[in-house]
Write a structure and sequence with these properties.
Length: about 180
């Protein structure tokens, strides 16, 4: 089932999500399937619980559509991250453009560390402690930020933030134009 994606300005996007008792989450598999379906419908590569109105620490990522000769490591990279905790961020800050399904029409360069180490449960409730770098690390950090009530626009330079203020204000007022189902304030 395709869920509405909550848009910038909705209070749920600023809440810190809570760990879930995944072993006692009645429809966890269905939720994960719905999150993937919602993400694909909006042409995204990641989607976090708060973006679909949940206060739960869960996000999904699928980089398979981006796999090519230059990025074979994306092949088969489809994961759910439950109760994730980034325990280490290392490397240089890389400034790369990002967008977000909750902030349609806005793309900005965002500084992020090039490597992370993250602990999480997968959709089968198996525990993982893994390291990622490059674009994989960036996408995971972006989705992880949603669990802490952080939007990518919070990480852009003050000058760029002033330049996009009008677009963000329009989103807060419910002026949204995109090809997928959304929920505004």
């Amino acid at each position: 089932m395709i869920l509405p994606i909550y848009v910038y300005g909705h209070p749920i996007l600023r809440k810190v999500a809570k760990d879930i008792d995944a072993s006692n989450y009645p429809n966890l598999k269905e939720l994960i399937d719905n999150m993937y379906e919602t993400m694909y419908n909006a042409d995204g590569v990641g989607l976090a619980g708060p973006q679909v109105g949940l206060e739960d620490r869960i996000f999904v990522v699928d980089l398979e559509p981006l796999a090519d000769e230059e990025h074979p490591e994306f092949k088969g990279f489809k994961k759910a991250f439950i109760n994730a905790n980034i325990i280490e961020r290392t490397g240089d800050l890389e400034l790369i453009e990002e967008g977000c399904l909750s902030i349609p029409g806005v793309h900005e360069k965002v500084p992020r560390e090039e490597r992370i180490r993250i602990k999480y449960l997968d959709e089968n409730l198996q525990s993982h402690d893994e390291e990622y770098n490059g674009y994989m690390a960036r996408v995971i950090q972006h989705e992880y930020d949603h669990l802490d009530g952080i939007m990518f626009t919070d990480r852009v330079s003050p000058m760029r933030k002033r330049m996009i203020k009008g677009k963000l204000t329009n989103l807060e007022k419910g002026k949204v134009s995109c090809d997928y189902r959304v929920k505004t304030v």
